[in-house]
Each structure stands twice: as structure tokens, then as C-alpha cells.
## 1
Amino acid sequence: MIIFKAENLCLNLNGKDILKNVSLTVEKGNAITIMGPNGAGKTTLMRVILGILKPTTGKLYFFGGNGLNKEIKKVIGYIPQNLGLVNELNVMNNILIGALRRVPRWRSILGLYPNDIIDEANELLDVLKLSHLKNSKVKNLSGGEKQRVAIARVLLQKPLLILADEMTASLDLKASREIMDILMEMKDKMNLTLIMIHHNPDIAKMYSDTIFIMVDGRLEKVIEANAIDRDELVRLYER
Amino acid sequence: MKDRLRYVWLSLILIIIGSSIHLGFNPLSLIDDSNNGYIIMQELLAIDFSVADKVFYAVIETLEMATIGSSIGFALSIPAALLAARNLSPFFISIIFRSIVSILWSIPPLLYAILLVAIVGLGPTAGILAIALFVVGLSGKYLYEIYESQNPSAYDVMNVMGSTRLQKVKYVTLPEASPYMSNQYLFLLSYSVRESAILGLVGAGGIGFYIMQYLESLNYGKAALFILAILIITIGMDYLSSKLRNKMVH
């Protein structure tokens, strides 16, 4: 089943073509990675998919339907490159942000979350080994702990599709693998679809079904992750 | 580049000299009229402690005026700044509130006090309102700049989820700005104490009111005690607020 489809996306910003006719299809349950050199348009493509930027031309289809509407937004999770956490809030309150669209507006404004949401948040804290940090302010956490908070927040949203922009960029390979293992475990458990951006070819190969190579605003190549070796992948995207 | 800088300096010096001639400014008059200064200083130094009880009440009144005025002003500046911030408010609303905040900020508290004394009469009410109005402007301007400079990625996450403006304010804007806001409140408190001390000069209550009264009746010794009190409370408040702000930062 196709969960997301982009058709001929073009984006022109200040007279410069940032995206040039990008088309891609993502099947339900897949993990795809977009790779490419700096300035290739990866983050811009992700921001267009998320509705943060409007494409100049082209169409987006989610879950077989049309466009990005309020209901679809509820089930799209996003982990930006610097995670988008609120440093002055504690871990629990950061995670609860993920449930904002699952509770009535007045409850979210008063901070009165129903018990089942609180239970789910506590469960995620347990799974992600964050329970002991529940009341700590995010600004006092390590890089890896912050990544786990960002994952917990996006999971509490109960998304069907998660977009993650270089979420392990600030971590070493070992820590990156730990974080990706957690994300993959949750992906399988919750039957999620992932669209990710990675710079590290090892991570991309290890945790993706399909790799899209972007160069200069174009989608140059679509590769099955297990059908290419690491060096060839590096050669392709550093070209 | 060096030549241009030389011209800037030269122009500045010429402006200062020209303005001084235009205004008839003569710093030497301080020496020429030093006898007057000597007499006034002598009288001021003969501090008259018989008005100590009045000083005590005036100090309390000044502190109360500053606390009420700055608190009302600060509380009003939060929604004003939220509506003025370009990243939180629709374009036209933000333009309107930025203008309001800028106008409130550009009028000095003493001018507010003169106008308010004419409207609500002599006394601390005029002083409190004068401080509150100025603080809305001062704090509003500072706060909307803080709100606008916040990390946009937390807002991106909220936008992608389809969150409302109110949700963004509750979960991102206010928590992220909270250390700056507490800091700002403490600064405003000490600033308002200094301002309230002066507002009495135009009849808007506080310690300045007594200073004006005693200076006009040439009771310099009594005025001196009030001036000394201003010195102590402003330095004391400044010290206390900077201590507290440091404590909050670390």
C-alpha cells in the first residue's frame, strides 16, 4: 500500500530552483533514507513534504488521499535536525507535546491530560529508559538522552508516518546505532513508515529499505539498501 | 576607511561645539557660581533627622508604587509582546501591537506622570499608572524580541502537528522565555524604584514629592535625608535584583 507519493515537485526560492521535478513513492511500513551532498535539497524536500514550505508546482498524496490536511497532519510525526525540544520544560512535558492533537484543545491548554495518555507517556519513558529523567529539564540532558526524548514525543503522537532529518547527526556511530535500533524496534512494533535523511552511509544502509540519492535538487537514483555495498553508496552520493 | 572615520569624529566634535554655543552652555559657570554651590552643599550636608518617620513612610510608598506599577506593566507586556511577535501573530496584528509598544516605550515616565496627575489628580495613583504604561513599552519591546529569536524547530514540530497559536504559546514560547522573563521582571522592579523616586517631583506620589516640598521651602537639611534614602533604596534594589538574577542564571 502506498502511504506517500510526491509527483513532480518543484520549488523555486528567490529565483533559484531548489527542487527540480522530484517524484517519489513510499510504501507502508518502509524505511527510506534520502542522501546527498550538502545543498542537494534534502531538508527542503522534507520541509515541502511536511507542509512547512509550499512547492511551486507538483502534488503530494498521503495515504491514498489528497494533500496535507488537518486530519493527516495529526498522524505525521517530525523529528527535526536539532530535535525541536523545549529546553526549559522537563522530559515528561516535552513528551506530552506529542499528544497535543489527541486531546481536546481546552485540556491541552490547561495541561490536563487524561490518565490513559499519561500512562502511555510513562510506558514510553520506560521503553526508552528515560523514567529516571522524567522531571529533569531537557537542557540538562546529554545528546543521546535528548534524541530519546524526541523519539518518545513523536511516538506519543501515534503517527503513521515519521519524517526525521539527520536526527543522529550529532552522535558518534555507536550512539547513532543505539538510537536507530530503538527507532526501528518501535517502527516494527507500531507498523510505522519512516522517511529519513542521513549523512552516514553505514546508518543509511543498515536502517533503510530504500535509499534515494539527491543531487542538485534532483532525485538521481533509487537504490535498494541491501543491493549496494557501502563504498559504492559513498561514491554515488559524494559524486 | 580611516579617512571616513576621521570625518565622522570631526563632524561630531563640530556638532558638540556648535550645540554648546547655540545653547549658551558654559561649564565654567560652575566655578563662577561656586559660592552658591558651596552654601547649598553645606546645608544639604547638615542632614536633619527630625523627618526620619516621614522618610520611612515615603520609602514604603515608593517601593509600593514601584512594585504595583512594574507588576501591572509587566503583566500587560506579556500579551502585548505575544501579539507583537511576528512569528506568533498575523502580520497586521503584529504591526499594530509593535506600534503601540514602541509609542508607550518612547514617552518618558515623567511625562506620563505630568499627564496623569492632570487626569487622576495628585498622589501615587498617577505614579503607579505612569510606571505601568512605560513598563508595558519597555518590557513589551524586550519580550517580543525574545519571542522572535527562539529556536524555530520547536515551532516547526508544533506546526507540522497542526497545533494552534495558543498551544504554541503555552508549550514553546512561554517556557523557553521564562528565564529571560523572570530576569526582566527583576530588572524592571529595580528600574521602577528609581523612576518612582523621581515621579513625586511632579506630584505623582513617592519620595520625590517630599524632596520637592522641602527644596521649595529651602529646607535643604530635610530634603537631604530623602535624597540619601533614594540613594540607599536604588543602590539596594539594584544590588538585590542583580544578585537574584545571577542566582537564576546559574
Note: The longest helix of chain B spans residues 165-199.
## 2
Amino acid sequence: MAALGRQVIDWHRLMRLTWATIARQTSHLREQRMTVVSLLRPLTTASRGGSLKELSCVTSRKYMQEAECRTDLSQCLLEKPGTPVDRGALGLEAITTSLLDMGFSDAHIRELLSIQPRPTPQQLLDITSELILLGLNPEPVCVVLKKSPQLLKLPVKQMKKRSTYLRKLGLGEGKLKSVLYCCPEIFTMRQRDINDIVRVLREKCLFTVQQVTEILHRCPYVLREDPGELEYKFQYAYFRMGIKHLDVVKTEFLKYSITKIKQRHIYLERLGRYQTPDKKGQTQVLNPSLKDIFRVSEAEFLAKTACSSVEEFEVFKKLLAREEEEGPEGCTSDSEEGTSSGEDAGD
Amino acid sequence: ATTEPKFPATRLALQNFDMTYGVQFGDLWPSIRVSLLSEQKYGALVNNFGTWDHVIAELERLSARDFVNEAFSHWKLEPEKGQPVASAPAPVSWACSPNLQCFTFAKGDISCFPRARLGSLGVLDYYLMDAASLLPVLALGLQPGDTVLDLCAAPGGKTLALLQTGCCRNLAANDLSTSRTGRLQKVLHSYVPEDIRDESRVRVTSCDGRKWGELEGDTYDRVLVDVPCTTDRHSLHEEENNIFQRSRKKERQILPLLQVQLLAAGLLATKPGGYAVYSTCSLSHLQNEYVVQGTIELLANQYSIEVQVEDLTHFRKLFMDTFFFFPSCQVGELVIPNLMANFGPMYFCKLRRLT
């Protein structure tokens, strides 16, 4: 219910944006005006017809219809302007007004306008409205753009094309929002790189389409990984730790670094507190939940899951790093005393 | 895929340890377990027959420290009113063998020692070993001019340490297997100048140690009985020669018996009034305390020989900065591995033959 209410508020903001965009467009695209307005009519009617309270009570089916409608609308609005390059200089005032209309506060606008390197006002407006149309709130838009100003250099066309592709991957409105929020590169990275990651998840790790969507949604950081390393991380989960596909997805396993995974898993394993399940999925010790292994802070992991001290874990991490680097031999003695006495007693 | 993959002996060893040590050590077991399965630490025993002053400077440059010397300096400062008592004779029961210098890195420091190098005197400059292996030799409390027996000497780390004390008038180093005494010989060749290890002073033999009591009864001032055991750390890492191989089950089961026989032989070879140290690199109390207690009983009943366990509490306190000791051994001391100081396991118990 709360989520629905939130959507409704978003929707109202979208309406304002729509009007702002239209207002802007009418000045130079008069001939398109009628089409846009006629498209908008059913929506605005719906909006005016019900109060906020009533709207939040609409059935999901109705909401779905509205959402579809909204998508159509954004498509329409985005496709129509066509040649955004030479639309003439927009005054600072005009930008400010448009941004205010989109729901940005004065503080947000100041932040947006101070982003370096400074984009052209038109570009700024195009990209921000694109992000708003993707369902982001003004606040995250500011955060995203400040964090990755390179987004402001993107041609709107490319951005649009990419969002269409991402929707095809199943990253619909709400999901795309969270992906973009923590991995804005998803718009700037090469198509081929995204394909590579998706292919590894599908073909090498054998996740289902839905699972891949879920992974991209919940652990967008996988997009930043080297495909080979991502595959290795999955294999580690599957073969070494005995975690099934569904749990890899549910526990957001792939978002943790392989270093952290190995440190915590191998530590528990050597302590005797974690065992790889056998073919029947059985273990002799009760394994801690993956959440208690990975999703907790190191202090909590040591206190509650490993029942060990910080000092010992620090040493262990150093030893493990050396093992990974040099193989299991480490710094062995050349004098064979490592085997001490009596190992072949009775020879 | 017609043949079942063999269940490795290292896995069998771990299963065995989980069953027995989980009970024996309770809450301490996980930290011992992770240490046994992780890389061990070494000590560098300085070769006193080489150009040692130069070597010590080198080791200090690596910020390693001589843990033996450090322990002694604490001991000298500690007694009454903090007065240095360097000249006072040490109480005999926990006197340490002299002249041993062994460098280790501080707790939590995982640095490695570089390989030993050949010094100008033609011998290697230090011997890398589990630093805890030095404790039985230190506990034996050698005195200058002692006649010493090392009953199960190979591969030679402890034998070398015995020679480093400079106390051995005579040293008999024995080990059952010739391949193992071969390794011992190699160590002696690399570390000890020829005149020190000539036949009249160092005698290497390959006899059955259990017969030593009959061969040379009441002969030695000091006897080291470093028996064959389950070599816990080794058994978790090496498939080769692993005593947990299924084919060696019988042999493993009679280990405690063999250990009792060896310790009994060692004590019989000790002069009345002399000392023996029993040691293993196993955590198992079946191979440690029980063997000591069983042997004392055996000697009392069958030979009417009285043997007394020496209290090493003070000795343990000296070395607590370097090693982790198990706090509740019935007799003897046990160094337990810990990631901060990954030495051991090493059990040792000092015994005095009274009659």
C-alpha cells in the first residue's frame, strides 16, 4: 500500500514534468502540440478525476494500466523532440523553471548547475528529464549526476536506447531505478560489456532469465566485474560452498568481493564451523546462514558467527593472501624440520 | 569414473581430530584447528658453530628477536626485589640448557626467514624449525660435560640443538630407520664442523630404541625421548607417509604402546638422578600425559624404579610471551597452535629418575 502511494506521488510529479516539457516544446514544436496534448488527455482526466486518497486505493489492475499509459507517454515525449542539438540557447531562468517543475528544489538545482565539467543547459535538461522519466526522484538524480557527471555527456538517443535494452532484460521502472542509483555506468559502459556479463550469468552459470534480472537488480555491481572473475565467484559459491542458484540470487552473494568471500568462508571452514554439503546436501556441522557470514559487519561476524578474535582474523587474512599468492607452501623451511620427528614411525 | 576417488589421509586425520580434540579441548579446538590448517611459524636456531655474531645482526635487522634470551632476561629481573641474580645458580628442576639462540618474529607478525646461507666457516648459519621444538631441549637442562642420549633423533633439529648447547661430552643419536638417520647425518654435515661430530663425540645409530635400556642401562645424564606420534600438523598437510592412511590403522592404534616402551627404555638408560624429557608433536593426551603416567607406573611395578615428574610451571611462565600453552595438562606442558603464534603442537614432560 505504501509503495502504491509512493508511486502515485511519483506519478503526480511526472505530470508536472510532462507539462513542463510540453510548455517548452510548444515554443518550437507547435505542430506536435496537438498530438501530445491529445495523448495526455486521458491521463490528466484521470488525475483530476480522483483525489490523492482515492488514487492510492485504485486496484492494481488500474494502476497497471496507468503505468502502461505513462510509459507510452514518455516514449512519445522522448521520441518527438528528434533533434535536440540545435534547439537554441536556453536561458538560466528557463532551465531553473523547468527543473523546478520537475520537482527539484532550489538546492538541487544549484547542485546540478555546479556540476563540472558543465554540460550545455539543453543537455542538462535532457538528461535530467530522462532520469526523472525512468522513475528516479530528484534527490537520487542529483546524487547520480554528481557522482557520474559523464552521464551528462551522453547523447539522449544512446540513453534511451540503453533504457529500452535494460527494460528488455527485465529491469522495469522500479528496478532500473535502483540499478542506476548504485551503478550509473550502466548507461555509459559498452553494450558489449553488458552482454558479456549477461552471457556469463546465463550460459556459464546457468541462471534463468528471471534470475539474471533479479541479480542485475539486486547486485548491479556485477556489471563492473570482469566476466571471468564473475564466473569464478559463482563457481566458488556453487562448488566450493555448495550454494544453489536460488540462494546465490536470494542472498545477493555475487555482490561481495571474492576476497571477502574467501576470507570469511575459509576462516569458518578451518575453524570447523562451515562444511561444504555433500551430494545429498548434508553436513556434519550446522552451517551458519549466508546472511550471518556475509551480510554482517566484520565485528559481528567475528563475535557471533566465527566466535574468534579480531587479532587472529587479521593474521589469518594476511596468511590467506600469501597462500593465494604463493600456493600452499608459503615460507617453508629448507631444513625439513617442518615434518618434525616420527612421521614415518615403524618404517 | 569407474574408481571411487580415494578419501585422502589428510581428510581422515582431520575427521579424527575433530572427534577427539573437539572433546579434549572444547571451546579451544576451533582456534587450534584453524591454526593447524594454516601456515606455521618458524624459528631460526642460530648455528653457534658458524659466524654467529654476524648472523644475529642480520636476524635483528629483520626485526626478529631471540626468544630464549628474552625469556632469560625476564627471569633474571623477576626474582626478589627485582635484583639481577645472574650469578645465582638456577633451581635445578627448571634449569634451561644454555647457549641456545633462536630467533622468532613477534606474535601476529607473519614474516618469513630467508633460506639459511653457507657461512665463511663452511656451515649453514641457522636452522629453521618449529620454535616450539626447542622447548624440550631447553627443558632438558643440559650441564657442561653431560653424556646425552637422543633416542629418536631424526630428522635432527633437536639433535642439532643439543649439540648447540656445547654441553655434550658424548651424544648418542639414534633413530630406528636408516633413511631417517640419513637425514640426520645430512643436517649434522651441514651445520656441525667435522671435529665436533667425530665418532668419539657424536654417535649416530639405527637401532630399535625400545632395547636401549638393555643395551646401555643407567648410562646417560640426560635423555631426550622425542617419540614417533601422529605428527598432527604434518598429518593434515601431507599425503605421503601419512599415518592416517587406512593401511596404517593398526600402527596408529599401537602408537601409545610404542611410546610407553620408548620412554621406559629412555628412563632405563638414564642414570639414577639423571633427567629425561618426553616429547611429541601431537595434541592427543593418549599420546602425551597418559603415556607419561603409564610409563611411571610401569617402571615402578616392573623395575622398582622411581621416577618423578618435574614441575615446569615456572618454565612455562618464561616462555609465555612467545608460545600459547594449554592451561590444564595433568603432567608436562603443551604448546597449542594459535594464529598469533602458530607454533606447535609440542608436548613435553620432564622426568627425573630417582632410583
Note: Confidence is low (pLDDT under 50) at residues 80-90 of chain B.
